Amino acid sequence: MSAPTDSPRPSPEQPDEPPGDARTILTGEDMSRALVRIGHEILERNKGADDVVVLGILTRGAPLARRLAHVLADVEEGVDATAVVGLLDVTMHRDDLDDQPTRTIGTTSLPRGGIDAKTVVLVDDVLYSGRTIRAALDALNDLGRPRAVQLAVLVDRGHRELPIRADYVGKNLPTAADERVRVLLAETDGRDAVLIDSGTGTGPRRQR
Amino acid sequence: MKHLLSASDLSRDEAVLILDTAAAMAATQERAIKKLPTLRGRTVVNLFFEDSTRTRISFETAAKRLSADVINFSARGSSVSKGESLKDTALTLQAMGADAVVIRHQASGAPHVLAQSGWTRGAVLNAGDGTHQHPTQALLDAYTLRHHLVGLRAATDPVGRDLAGLDVVIVGDILHSRVARSNVELLHTLGATVTLVAPPTLVPVGVEPWPCAVSYDFDEVLDAGPDAVMMLRIQRERMVDGGFFPSPWEYTRNYGLDARRLARLPDHTIVLHPGPMNRGLEISADAADSPRAVIVEQVANGVAVRMAALYLLLTGADHMQGETE
Amino acid sequence: MTAYLLQGVRPLGGEPTDVLVGDGTILVIGATAAGTAEATEAERLDVSGLVLLPGLVDLHTHLREPGREDAETIASGSRAAALGGFTCVHAMANTLPVADTAGVVEQVWQLGRDAGYVDVRPVGAVTAGLGGERLAELGAMAQSHAAVRVFSDDGKCVADPVVMRRALEYAKAFDAVIAQHAQEPRLTTTAQMHEGQVSAELGLAGWPAVAEEAIVARDVLLAEHVGSRLHVLHLSTAGSVEIVRWAKTRGIDVTAEVTPHHLYLTDERVRSYDPVFKVNPPLRTAADVEAVRAGLADGTIDTVGTDHAPHPREDKDCEWAAAAFGMTGLETALSVVQAAMVDTGAMTWADVARVMSATPARIGRVGDQGRPLAVGEPANLTVVDPDARRVVVPADQATASVNTPFAGMELPGRVVATFLHGRPTVMDGRLVEPAT
């Protein structure tokens, strides 16, 4: 029996220490600015924060969702950051469970008020093939009936395999398929940064 | 993890992983929509050479909650009596494309033979073999123990925790019990201290290396204040025919969990029974129906644990590569 | 008949010499052999450095015919025996029909002669139909052409003490021996393997050592009481060795046998649940293996008998409880004895000749087998290459069954040639078809 990968240990795509040839795409400051901007866009699009809940997709979407909730609370009066944030584990709805080592199942926790008739903003670090978001939409379907679902991502690196697009994007980043985008977060990695590794010559790798 | 054949195959971390996964599964079972798409398109065969409606339904429910297709195959008459052989049955199931075979068999070791034979490429889950092993029963018992004695008692989330420091007493027909064998190994692996209690005729010769204590005196063991008491089913006919004890009444007097013994237990102590119970023989109605009894809960936990086992066996890139780790 | 000159061979592992074989006997031993008139016509075999033994004699072979020709025939079992270095095997009585009449034993004897690879000596049943209740016609079998001198219900124990007593007494009239399968039936009703730590863990019903030892103890006392000779088959426990040792010090006329597999394998093998390791009596503990090795080395145990027990594939291709008891052994016996006893320094090749040829022949009252390697003696011979090593491949064996527990194991020693009454049955490790 092999130990599953994924949280809390870094996955192979996101090692603790970046190799030397990684380029920094976003610094910590860039990331903070992007999240503040996304927060404002959410409030603008939804005409405030009423009935907005923020669901972070495990694992790297979770800290981002918490930060985003704090942005909303900072900007909009009456928003309780801890009350609008939730976590969504999509493992059991994935369609690629055979392609990778067995994944640990995370814990889904919804905001106190649930998601029925709410505007759910899904939060993830990198939008790539779109399959994680597809799984998240399916998972949401089993949990309740939101009024609307929106998607916020820190990086959109293209290469979509499904008709899915993000409503809020921190940075659009055209990439080659064999490049690797790694998001480091202070909560798990000790610092904030988005890095890109140039192609390793080993061919394209599946990435969340 | 390619197969789940014996509790002794599991390391402490693997066992905790299964319990944690079961906890995640249990959480999904509190939702209005209990069904998950996780194993959609997979086929799970319940191959039961020995009648056990309870265990079969538990596995069937677990597989269906994960959207697997379930085929129930009750092999009437054993291969011992020269019905269809295990080999031919297995080859048939392979032809049907079984991704996992849940096997219950009256012969100890039959799941091992199935897993090693090459007759099926699917994962093999031992759902009870003879007087050998019943690993998912031990896992659901461990899950129940952890939930109550690590989680609820300390008001903490038990995820990631083992059973270190718990004293568990297992009482009854140890000799013929696959539940006892599985639990001794698994609970020990998880850090619990296990004491077996039985009349000497129902303790196997060769028990010495087992990682547990053995006592013939139930009352003395109860005086030590165990955290959990697990009562095993006594098969009345087997006991009388085999002459293992003089009479059911004498057994109940010395080894039954009755109101008197129940009252001596510490407040936090829970009572388990793998079912089905013989009320009045190994366990009295007072004990079976007391608030300490977590017997019904064991059944519910059985589904979550079996969902976890199926998930861990049937997903992951390495699950069909054939190595038994 | 062709003469053969074995050049440079080492009789009983001793100094190299030449041995001339012709007319069914050993004609010359020594450097002068090559210069004799017969040697000029002889086929010369360069077997320098190889070990020469008297042809091996097995008191315990299941040839399955009549009745279970799907597992083995007398012909296929005879070929396996020759390849294993045997020149005489005793065919156990648990066939279908049971060898409990003069008719059946004569049929077996005749089929053995027809096959022509080894002398097949039938074993007669002690009780009619192996039923354990009524003596079979021991006299008729003893006086038949098959001249039966070994009687056994092997596979079943003669459990009734009165029946056993009568059999021991009655056999004296023909100088025959009762070979007991020592297994107390009530203590082993559902037994699947040795009862001990491994059975406790595996949840397989135990076959306790005491079930064997209780019968061995009873039978040596019965043999003493009635003054008969007793042969204990496949002795497998340390306790049984002790009892036989005690009986011999009292002068009781008891002999005992151990199988190659009980000299080599332990109950730890059962952890695989592979039914190829299911055998009766069961594989015991490492301490028991040590005890039977010591017993064989010090003479407490007199013989090695193969208990060659072929089974069709379907009887082993199943779960443990459904599988048949028994393993093949003719083609691996000598190698296993070499590995367990000779290569460990516990025995010499002369000792091997004693326990695998001379003593079994004497117990079975086979006059022209198990004889010394001396001029004028019958040329029943086996030439062994002790330095060879081989991996056991079941499909390559001559036995019709594949249930060898040594499959895939590398064992020492290889039978290069076997001579039956002067005629080669095996040359260069391959069978020689008998002239018709």
Low-confidence stretches of chain A: 1-18, 201-208
The SSE order of chain B reads: HEHEHEHEHEHEEHEHHHEHH
Q: For the CA atoms, what is the radius of gyration of chain A?
A: 16 Å
Q: Number of DSSP helices of chain B?
A: 12
What general outline of chain B do the C-alpha atoms trace? globular
| Overall outline of chain A | globular
Structural class of chain B: alpha/beta
- Helical coverage of chain A, percent range: 25-40%
Instruction: Give the beta-strand count of chain B.
Output: 9
Order of adjacent strands in the largest pleated sheet of chain B: 7-6-5-8-9
Q: Element order, helices and strands of chain A?
A: EHEHHEEHEEEHE
Percent strand of chain B: 5-15%
- Please identify the oligomeric state: heterotrimer
Placed side by side, the strands forming the largest sheet of chain A appear as 3-2-4-5-6
Mean pLDDT of chain A: 86
The description of the largest β-sheet of chain B is: 5 strands, parallel
Distance between the termini of chain A: 24 Å
List keywords for this structure.
heterotrimer, A: 208 residues, alpha/beta, 5-stranded parallel beta sheet, 3-stranded antiparallel beta sheet, 5 helices, 23% strand, disordered C terminus, C: 436 residues, 9-stranded mixed beta sheet, 12 helices, 19 strands, 28% helix
What this model shows, in words?
- The complex is a heterotrimer of chains A (208), B (325) and C (436).
- By secondary structure, chain A is α/β, with parallel strands linked by helices.
- Chain A has helices spanning 28-45, 61-75, 81-84, 131-143, 186-189, and strands at 23-26, 52-57, 85-88, 119-127, 148-156, 168-172, 180-184, 193-197.
- In chain A, the strands form two sheets. Chain A has a five-stranded parallel sheet with strand order 3-2-4-5-6.
- In chain A, helix 1 packs across helix 2.
- The longest helix of chain A is centred in the N-terminal third of the chain and has 18 residues, at 28-45.
- Chain A is globular.
- Chain B is of the alpha/beta class and 325 residues long.
- In chain B, the strands form two sheets. A five-stranded parallel sheet of chain B has the order 7-6-5-8-9.
- The termini of chain B are close together.
- Chain C contains twelve helices and 19 strands.
- Helix content of chain C is 28%, strand content 21%.
- Chain C starts with a strand and ends in a 5-residue tail after the last strand.
- With 436 residues, chain C is of the alpha/beta class.
- In chain C, helix 2 packs across helix 3.
- Chain B binds chain C through residues 78-80, 85-87, 105-110, 112-113, 116, 129-133, 178, 181, 204-210, and chain C through 192, 195-206, 208, 272-275, 314, 317-322.
